[in-house]
Every structure is written in structure tokens, then in C-alpha cells.
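[09:14] KT: can someone run the structure on this one? pasting the chain below
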Amino acid sequence: MSLKVIKKYSVLIADDSEEDSFFMERALRESTRFQVVGSVRDGEEAVAYLGGTGTYSDRQLWPFPDLVLIDLKMPRLDGFQVLEWLQKQNFSSLKAVVLSGASIAGDIQRVRSLGADAFYAKTLQHARLIELVKNLEAFLLDPTSVGAIPPSSK
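[09:31] RB: done, C-alpha cells below
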């Protein structure tokens, strides 16, 4: 009898809202596929973490994530600036998903043009967060099956 190994995906949460980060992390922990490896409060910290600089230079303590969840409205560098920085990096395996409190059509187009894999409206409703996590799982397991994570409708 062989044991099936479940692939775990490491996640970095970049969000200045402690409440939003807490509920997102809680939903991710309910999945057997996700492991939160870090949570940062602004765009400069996200860039430092992803770039492995400063406090985040030790990849044993701060492993490079498979997925980064980015809030658009953060201090120091906003989510757009983080995406612009990511475009200049060679992180081909990293998936970037934007979570924002405002679902403005122009923002959605802009994040997609900056290379984000998806855009979702933020929610604190546990059931919707679990649905989001399931969509992320499906996409990471087989990105070709859906092409991209569909944007949320609300």
C-alpha cells in the first residue's frame, strides 16, 4: 500500500490589515494544501521577503513562497508597486493573487496587465474565504485546467 503525498504550497500574505490577514490565514490553515510561511504589513516588507533581503535573507526561516496574496492598498509600496517589482524579477514559479477591498474595473485590468494571476474582492465571510481557498487549490494543482483563477464576481 502506497501513501499519497499531498503537495503543500507555501503562501506569503502581504496585507496591512491585521484582521484581513488573520481571517485569510485561518481559512488557508483549514486546507491540507497550504502552509503560510510569512505575513507582511506593507509593500516594502513584501519586496524584502520575496527578494530575500534584510531580515528575510535566511531562506531556512523565511522560505520562498509558491503563492503571494497581495493587498492593493498598503503603506510604503502599494500592491501595484509590488506587482511592478515582481515583473522585473525572475520568479517564474511564483503565483501572485491580488485581494482588494475595492473591486474597481480599472484596478482589475491594471493588476492583470502587471502579471497578477487573479484578482479577488476581499471578504471576511468564512464561507467565501473557504471557497477562495478551494479555487486557489484547484488552480495551483493544475493551472492549465482553468488557464487562470477566475476573478470573483462580487
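[09:33] KT: thanks! Confidence is low (pLDDT under 50) at residues 146-154.
[09:34] RB: yep, looked fine to me
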